[in-house]
Amino acid sequence: MNLVIDSNILFAALIREGGTSDILFKHTLYAPEFIFEEFKKYRDYLKGKTKRTEEEFEELFDLFERHVILMPEEEFEPFIAKAEEISPDVKDTIYLALAMKLRCGLWSNDSDLKEKQRVVQVYSTEELMKLE
Fold it and tell me: Which of 19, 34, 38, 86 is most buried, taking the most CB atoms under 10 A from its CB?
């Protein structure tokens, strides 16, 4: 399945083994190109939260960088205004706009995002695990 992935999902996969990280590579994932800059900003914080070794953490981060297809904002810029109208949270606007551009679902555990807009199908980790 093609999905736009929310940064919090990637954060969760880096921190915890199983669940999120188990299904991460079973989908074609897209994200705005700034997502790894955000990761680098929180890298030390994430490392402090995980039980993974330094080597495991770095290997998984490397896999994410190779697996997630990054999209420049200019590719989905025409969808940002509509995303701003429907997004319950300004932080989700970019992800919604990208999902609208790609005509695909959005992987997020944000219940407001799922319930307060009807333009993009939002899948939680739990829902994706049930689809497997």
Answer: 86
pTM greater than 0.85 (yes/no): yes
Q: Output the CA torsion 69→92→120→112 (10° steps).
A: 140
Give bridge partners of residue 52 from the DSSP assignment: none
CB 5 within 8 A of CB 104: no
**Residues 3, 123: contact at Cβ < 8 Å?**
yes
Domains: count for the chain: 1
The CATH number of the domain where 34 resides is what? 3.40.50.1010
For residue 11, what are the domain limits?
Answer: 2-131
Beta strands in the chain (DSSP E): 2-5, 28-32, 69-71, 105-107, 122-123
Q: What is the pLDDT of residues 4-32, one digit of tens each?
A: 999 889 888 888 776 677 788 889 999 99
